[in-house]
Amino acid sequence: NAGVTQTPKFRILKIGQSMTLQCAQDMNHNYMYWYRQDPGMGLKLIYYSVGAGITDKGEVPNGYNVSRSTTEDFPLRLELAAPSQTSVYFCASSYSSVGDTEAFFGQGTRLTVV
Amino acid sequence: AQSVTQPDIHITVSEGASLELRCNYSYGATPYLFWYVQSPGQGLQLLLKYFSGDTLVQGIKGFEAEFKRSQSSFNLRKPSVHWSDAAEYFCAVGARNTGTASKLTFGTGTRLQVTL
């Protein structure tokens, strides 16, 4: 059972480039989330989805976009990368709403924008 | 809006010693409370959760936590720490019954170092 899989694990981007962080889960969870983790700041919610075709903004959505065409996949798109987007990104999924139940996290993508 | 405070950024304990990590929350109703652990280079893993009922909850790896409503606290404890417990620990609070997807609010984390 793979759980939540994120790719890539590491990436260096130049300012202004774009990329997509991939996230896939095989637990048939409806709820999926993207967080970013900055040193000393905990995790901040970027976007979330409650099911295929439904997404919504979290605390820090600016500079990011998401889509959810299938239950399994929830990619995060960075357009016009900026140094402020240097962070570790975590994808998570849960059976029901994440405040109510256990969330399963991927291993993270460490992104550096130079 | 809910918030979580973990006052200790970094804690060092000797292997075999007891451990208590502090967590204080702010929320208008009875919250759902969680402790997650993050080992180096890994994602977060749930240690334990409190939803209702017995205020002392048991988790994996020998951890427990106690919900104290009067103190708005949910401190994590372990009677005897092992070197493999070195990690970062996050307390989180979840909103209840929001009608939409509830969300987790995380504390800033406590990094635990274990000396041999």
Entry keywords:
heterodimer; A: 114 residues; mainly beta; seven-stranded mixed beta sheet; four-stranded antiparallel beta sheet; B: 116 residues; 12 strands; 51% strand
Please write out the topology:
The complex is a heterodimer of chains A (114) and B (116).
Chain A: E1 4-7, E2 10-13, E3 19-25, E4 31-37, E5 43-51, E6 54-57, E7 64-66, E8 76-78, E9 87-94, E10 104-105, E11 109-113
Parallel strand pairs in A: 2-11
Antiparallel strand pairs in A: 1-3, 3-8, 4-5, 4-9, 5-6, 7-8, 9-10, 9-11
Chain B: E1 3-5, E2 10-14, E3 19-21, E4 24-26, E5 32-38, E6 44-50, E7 56-58, E8 64-68, E9 73-78, E10 87-94, E11 104-106, E12 110-115
Parallel strand pairs in B: 2-12
Antiparallel strand pairs in B: 1-4, 3-9, 5-6, 5-10, 7-8, 8-9, 10-11, 10-12
DSSP summary, beta strand count of chain B: 12
Number of strands of chain A: 11
The amount of beta strand of chain A, in percent, is: over 45%
Terminal Cα separation of chain A, in Å? 36 Å
Structural class of chain A: mainly beta
Mean pLDDT of chain A: 92
How can the largest sheet of chain A be summarized? Answer: 7 strands, mixed
Tell me the structural class of chain B: mainly beta
Backbone CA Rg of chain A = 13 Å
What is the mean predicted local confidence, pLDDT of chain B? Answer: 90
Unreliable stretches of chain B: none
- Gross morphology of chain B is globular
> In oligomeric terms, what are we looking at?
heterodimer
SS field, number of helical segments of chain B: 0
Give me a quick take on this structure.
With 114 residues, chain A is mostly beta strands.
Can you characterise this structure?
The complex is a heterodimer of chains A (114) and B (116). Chain A has strands at 4-7, 10-13, 19-25, 31-37, 43-51, 54-57, 64-66, 76-78, 87-94, 104-105, 109-113. Chain A is built from no helices and eleven strands. Helices cover 0% and strands 49% of the residues of chain A. Chain A is globular, with a radius of gyration of 13 Å. Chain A starts with a strand and ends with a strand. In chain A, β5 (43-51) and β6 (54-57) form a beta hairpin. In chain A, the strands form two sheets. In chain A, strands 2, 4, 5, 6, 9, 10 and 11 form a seven-stranded mixed beta sheet that branches. With 114 residues, chain A is mostly beta strands. The model of chain A has no long low-confidence stretch (mean pLDDT 92). Chain B is mainly beta. Helices cover 0% and strands 51% of the residues of chain B. Chain B contains no helices and twelve strands. In chain B, strands 2, 5, 6, 10, 11 and 12 form a six-stranded mixed beta sheet that branches. In chain B, strands 3-9-8-7 form a four-stranded antiparallel beta sheet, with no helix packed on it. A two-stranded antiparallel ribbon of chain B has the order 1-4. In chain B, a hairpin with a 5-residue loop joins β5 (32-38) and β6 (44-50). Chain B is globular. At the A-B interface, β5 of A face β6 and β10 of B.
